[in-house]
């Protein structure tokens, strides 16, 4: 029982992170292009800045759940994909430094340099998440709980297309967010860009699904393809619907695009459960959720504490979004 609750909690935290920090990632990728002058760049920073550090709390909490609740996942995924994980963590740290440093020294060249660093790190983080999701969806070279991943496997069509899809989805999510959180020319450009990106993101998502079915190794990891297909169709529908809602000024538009951003997490869970990882060596080498989890006695002791802390996290996040619900402009305070 406890390992199932912890697994659901891990999924919730990862999904929340992708939906929330996906806005920051996408803004970092497309924000500099959408903003035509310093005033609009200030507006973009003011729209996303209040949520930046709060979004990362979800990732920190998910990492804590993985290390404390699922040592089997930590020893297989984190060690087997060590270079990819290190690259992602390094990009997160450099991105945070770029956000902190960009306003510390006056001057367009200084801000321009750190804005460029922020853009590159956001692209790298998005690519990392997409590659990781694409790799985990298929059958892995997993034996005895040890993942010996050949870097060449990350260059297969599925991980590559999944990485490109992540960049497109996060960028769309950000443009939808900016379309309803800003006004004037910036909002109009964000709305138009969201409409164009919808077809790109949806097309890449469909191509990723085709690659998952066409690749025998990837297809072997789809233990439950029907629920995964249903979630994929829901994500594609959200990608196409969100820009339409944004064009009508609906405040719910980012919620819809956020569903597409977090969709890979429940999709992976639905495709694999009750397995956490699927092995290409055969079902006997699969790593189940129960096998990856810590001892039941550990989960039973720590679990109630975590479940008490989670409502506090959710309440704080809701309060933060409520406090900064007004649209941003060049007069709004920008924290970075």
Give structural notes.
This protein has about 325 residues and is an all-alpha fold. Helices cover about 75% and strands about 5% of the residues. It contains 14 helices and 4 strands. The protein has helices spanning about 1-35, 40-50, 50-70, 70-80, 80-100, 110-135, 155-180, 185-215, 215-220, 225-245, 255-260, 265-270, 290, 295-325, and strands at about 140-145, 145, 275, 285-290. It has a two-stranded antiparallel ribbon. A two-stranded antiparallel ribbon has the order 3-4. The longest helix has about 35 residues, at about 1-35. The mean pLDDT is about 85.
List low-confidence stretches.
none
The run of helices and strands is HHHHHHEEHHHHHHEEHH
Q: What is the count of DSSP helices, taking H or I runs of 4+ residues?
A: 14
Number-wise, the strands total 4
Radius of gyration: 20 Å
Strand content: under 5%
Q: Could you give a short account of the major beta sheet?
A: 2 strands, antiparallel
Shape: globular
Mean pLDDT, nearest integer? Answer: 87
* Distance N to C terminus: 44 Å
The assigned structural class equals mainly alpha
Q: Trace the largest sheet across and list its strands.
A: 1-2
**Helical coverage, percent range:** over 70%
Would you kindly provide a brief summary of this structure?
With 336 residues, the chain is mostly helical. It is 76% helix and 3% strand.
């Amino acid at each position: 029982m406890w390992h199932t609750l912890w697994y659901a909690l891990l999924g919730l935290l990862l999904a929340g992170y992708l939906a929330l920090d996906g806005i920051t990632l996408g803004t970092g990728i497309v924000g500099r292009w959408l903003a035509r002058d310093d005033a609009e760049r200030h507006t973009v920073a003011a729209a996303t800045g209040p949520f930046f550090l709060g979004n990362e709390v979800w990732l920190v909490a998910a990492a804590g759940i993985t290390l404390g609740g699922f040592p089997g996942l930590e020893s297989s995924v984190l060690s087997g994909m060590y270079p990819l994980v290190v690259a992602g963590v390094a990009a997160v740290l450099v991105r945070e430094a770029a956000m902190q440093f960009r306003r510390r020294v006056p001057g367009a060249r200084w801000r321009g340099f750190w804005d460029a660093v922020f853009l590159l790190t956001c692209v790298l983080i998005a690519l990392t998440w997409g590659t990781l999701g694409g790799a985990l969806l298929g059958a892995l070279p997993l034996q005895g709980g040890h993942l010996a991943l050949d870097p060449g496997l990350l260059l297969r069509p599925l991980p590559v297309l999944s990485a490109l899809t992540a960049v497109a989805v996060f960028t769309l999510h950000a443009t939808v967010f900016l379309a309803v959180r800003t006004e004037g020319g910036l909002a109009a450009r964000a709305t138009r860009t969201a409409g164009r990106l919808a077809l790109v993101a949806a097309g890449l998502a469909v191509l990723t699904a085709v690659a998952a079915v066409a690749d025998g190794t990837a297809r072997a990891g789809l233990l439950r393809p029907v629920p995964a297909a249903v979630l994929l169709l829901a994500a594609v529908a959200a990608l196409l619907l969100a820009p339409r809602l944004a064009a009508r000024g609906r405040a719910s538009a980012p919620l819809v695009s956020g569903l597409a951003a977090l969709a890979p997490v429940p999709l992976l869970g639905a495709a694999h459960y009750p397995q956490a990882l699927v092995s290409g060596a055969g079902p006997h080498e699969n790593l189940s959720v129960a096998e990856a989890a810590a001892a039941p006695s550990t989960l039973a002791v720590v679990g109630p504490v975590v479940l008490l802390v989670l409502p506090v996290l959710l309440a704080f996040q809701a309060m933060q979004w409520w406090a900064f619900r007004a649209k941003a402009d060049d007069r709004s305070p920008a924290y970075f």
